[in-house]
Design a protein that fits this description.
CATH topology of chain A: Thiol Ester Dehydrase, Chain A
Oligomer: homotetramer
Largest sheet of chain A: 6 strands, antiparallel
Strand order of the largest sheet of chain A: 1-2-4-5-6-3
CATH superfamily of chain A: Hotdog Thioesterase
Shape of chain A: globular
Radius of gyration of chain A: 14 Å
Largest interface: A-B, 39 and 39 residues
Chain lengths: ~140, ~140, ~140, ~140
């Protein structure tokens, strides 16, 4: 699979991530990084980044890492824990790492850190791997 | 606490939810509903609603239900499981129900259903309840 | 599948559950109940039931409900939240209900209540369904 | 706090862990290791270690690491994902590491590996830290 083309595909076609300013910046099979600069549109009622924005950033990295093996991988379940607030102007990076891979399932840990290296949140996702190829989609 | 004013506050100030077309439509202490009509901007690379959009909708209902007691409640951790795809045009409702409440913590189940009554996803969130009042914020 | 025989099989062969006083008392495809009377051996350092004992009881109901369809179902991931303490002498019931079923995966909610009807803990488990039949095992 | 005395306390008083052959082998504030040699009593119906036994081992390490700061810490919620089967004779080690600590809450990752260094399962737990001291208990 052409990973550069796959990165472009995901950054164009994941419209929820794209329209909220998030993009995949690095991807290999089982590993990916996604990035976001926090702006006012990402905030919740108490002026910190909304949990859903953090989840979306982590989910983008999870989707990139899990689909980069070549099979369509869909999320079954994910857990996120929130540690420190993300604030306007923060550059957040979500880094997904595969911790288990079987024929049909896979598990990923995603750390979200800010540009000072502080751990903002942790995400863990389980993917189901279909039999169809992702590169038929682009 | 004036719940009508609180609903208006959350719908205006949760800018991530608002800018993505989501709003709280009902809120009482421990209970809330939030709604979203899925459009193209909510989709992922395989043309179904992105997991982060579903999470955000559930998180909005969770935030409304948990803060409606009057104390500022922040999410510690949440788990979401994905069952059926949400598609363009679907009207999704996230309904949060409190399953446990202590002085400092609380737990909520959130069901996301579509306008045919199909269960799309389930979310479970744990909140930490601070000592400050939410109505000082508005 | 002979569900009475399956119940006997699980109650005999799940040696971790059996040796800790837990048993399946009811099982149908997608639904199961398991029971435990809390005694001293289930307690932790602060004299309430250990989280692992609650998890095991829920996991037993989850295993029964998910395998009762006839295919071997194995747990991929599970989340448990703890609400109220379980105490010596409490009769705890874990009731598993299927919330989603696909060809290869399934999701179950399990409520653990005591004999006064108080919700002690909630468990959510995701199973992967293999192609082999469970009744070849007994 | 006398950590040697605390370790002895937890190994004696967590009767569910002790009666199932599990013990804390190392503990410092925020960090702990617990160990188990898998025997027949830990198995489930398909002859691998029961998920509840793995959860209990991880929960023991989580309890040790979180209480070692000196305040009573209780589990609010935990998630465990299962990767590889644990088999009779395996020596399993659960290693808990703190990833976040606030005045009233804390978060821990626990890796369970076997004696060949294979990752068997991953656990993530959130604790609520009470105001009472754990060393008043022993």
């Amino acid at each position: 699979m052409d990973l550069e083309k796959f990165k472009k595909f995901i950054n164009t076609n994941d419209r929820f991530a794209a329209s909220n300013g998030m993009s995949v910046i690095e991807v290999r099979p089982g590993i990916a990084k996604a990035s976001l600069t926090v702006c006012e549109n990402h905030l919740n009622g108490v002026n910190i980044i909304q949990g859903g924005a953090l989840f979306t950033l982590a989910d983008l990295a999870f989707a990139a890492a899990s689909n980069a093996h070549g099979l369509v991988a869909v999320g079954l379940t994910a857990t996120i824990s929130f540690f420190k607030p993300g604030l306007t102007g923060d550059i957040l990076t979500a880094e997904a790492k595969e911790v288990n891979l079987t024929a049909r399932t896979a598990c990923y840990n995603v750390d979200i850190t800010n540009n000072s290296g502080v751990l903002i949140a942790q995400f863990n996702g389980i993917a189901y791997r279909k039999k169809e190829s992702i590169d038929e989609k682009f």
